[in-house]
Design a protein that fits this description.
It is found in: Cell membrane. Keywords: Cell membrane, Membrane, Transmembrane, Transmembrane helix. This is LptF/LptG family permease. Pfam families: LptF_LptG (PF03739). The chain is 58% helix and 19% strand. By secondary structure, the chain is an alpha+beta fold. The chain has 2 domains: 224 residues, no CATH class; 78 residues, no CATH class. It has a 6-stranded antiparallel sheet, with no helix packed on it. β1 and β2 form a beta hairpin. α2 runs parallel beside α7 and α7 runs antiparallel to α8. The two termini are 23 Å apart.
Amino acid sequence: MDRINRYFLSHFFSMFGSLFATLFFIMSIVFFIQIARVTSVIEITFLELGKLYLFMLPQILLFTIPISFFIALGLMLFKLSRENETIVLFTLGYSPKKIARFFFVLATLTSLLLLANALVFLPISGQLNKNFIDYKRTNASLTLKAAEFGQRFSDWLVFIEGKHEKDGGDEYEHVVMYATGDATTNERLLLAEQGRITNVQGELVLSLDAGRGYEFSPARIHELVFNEMFLQTYGRGDLSEVVSLVEYWAEAKTNKRRAERISLDILIALFPMATVLFALSFGIVTYRYQKKGIYGGIFLVLFVYFALIMLLNKALPLLSIPLIFGLFLLFSWLYFQRKILRRY
């Protein structure tokens, strides 16, 4: 590697590091919110929270690395162009083709690593994450808080006026439960003096004592008086088997959702290769005359690439991989040739 390539790398990794840290932090918050939704159903310790985060780490990296690579490369070259360093390099005989060749190799290596992540680590971590949540649900005990709105038990919204500990468990006082209606069921309301939750072979059972139930239909209201009522969730008693990678991806032939997933992951992994020439075209400018356009160009490429994934992925799951990747590779080369190679 010559001195100029090392110079480019030092500036690129400096820009990439700051962008990656920012995007990684934002994506981590998004996935922590997803984990928080799980904790509304099951109780987990701090160490188990870290385990769930590690299971989601391959997915976070799959999104943050390609986008950081593309934006960092464009902004790094734009910064060098603003300081007239790229013009000096071209004047000294270092052609844009050499820059394109060097960064295309770097983008290819990045995409290969992302493909390994998408095809190997993502399926394994996804299956482990699903089994971990199923296991916790099987051994879960749901705790309701007094005088707090928005709590759920299965399809029911739950409100309790108070609670106290009895026989090693929580007993709830003055329980109010409401279930919204839909096309097949009516609105329902339950009122009970007392209630308690127990785990019976992986299924949470809510026992209600001394209460009334109401069902609201368009024509009438049905009332039910009960001394004791049991409501339960239907959990999974068995954990799914962690299948081999070959079996996992072979299912894409018959399972459309699996095909859509593999198509999405591969296209995201190939994003650095597909867009590296766009980044070079946006970043290499004559700053005096081309100050604007880089941010709009970066946003447009990101929007079009991921919009095409969303549009074609459902209609042509596996075929969308060569279509989108080939289309972007072709147009990026034509754009690079017209904007850069003809000028410098």
